[in-house]
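Q: Okay, next protein. This is Protein p34 from Roseovarius gahaiensis. I've checked the sequence twice, so it should be correct. Can you predict the 3D structure?
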Amino acid sequence: MSATMKLAVGSLIIGGVVLALKALAWWLTGSVALLSDALESTVNVATAIAALVAIQVAARPADATHPFGHHKAEFFSAVLEGVMIIIAALLILKEAYHGFTAPRDITAPLEGLLLNGAATILNGVWAWLLVTKGRALRSPALVADGRHLFTDVLTSAGVAMGIVLAIVTGWWILDPIMATLVALHILWSGGHLIAQSLSGLMDEALPEGELAKIRSVISEHGGGAVEAHDLRTRHAGRATFIEFHLVVPGEMSVFDAHEICDRLEAALKQAIDEAEVTIHVEPEHKCKHSGIVVLD
């Protein structure tokens, strides 16, 4: 089992434990805010399942019907997670409305807060691990899952603060107010996650820092060529696709031009993890004098 798969399975297990703790906290207290926190955790479990399936699909090698691989499956998982976050927020708003119309006391608040606190700490540690490892493994699904868990940690802390204030002041209306704030925060988080994932599905170019790195590698390792232009890049899951035109002297043999391409491809794959490089060779009269200057 790959490291990515192990983390995806771990997310499913952790999500189940956290959901059980939060559900028990809500059952003991009857708090609408704690119910909202538990509802968000049901999304965590569902999205962990979606991420696990997406990672399995993304790991499949390229085939006749998918010659560029299945990497984008992870972006679909991240979009689905964003949609489910928004649905959870709407469910929380519904429960908060009932809390406003019929506010009630919170029972066993200490026990509920302790259970919710344990779940929050577990979520925080796992979220940090997912984002850190997800970036290292270039897995959008794991990073999206980790970022969602971080929002869960923040909302759980807010819920706990609201319950403490309600207990101290006796203003039980603070319970549904906090649930409403949690729902609004989750709505923003879900929308932001969908926007980020759609940029990957729309083949957005790499950030400028990575583009500068690619240009530098081409310039340093393209000796014998004249210039490179029409550089195009995109991310698809763990894979980074790099395409460009390489201009060589008109009298250069096919063998020598191919040697330069092999050298460039090897250098780019060493500099950029999981790089898929496509180079189109052109004769010297195709120079645009506006691309990447190759250093001798």
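A: Here is a summary of the prediction. The two ends are 45 Å apart (CA to CA). The CA atoms of residues 86 and 187 lie 5 Å apart.
Q: Noted. On to the next one.
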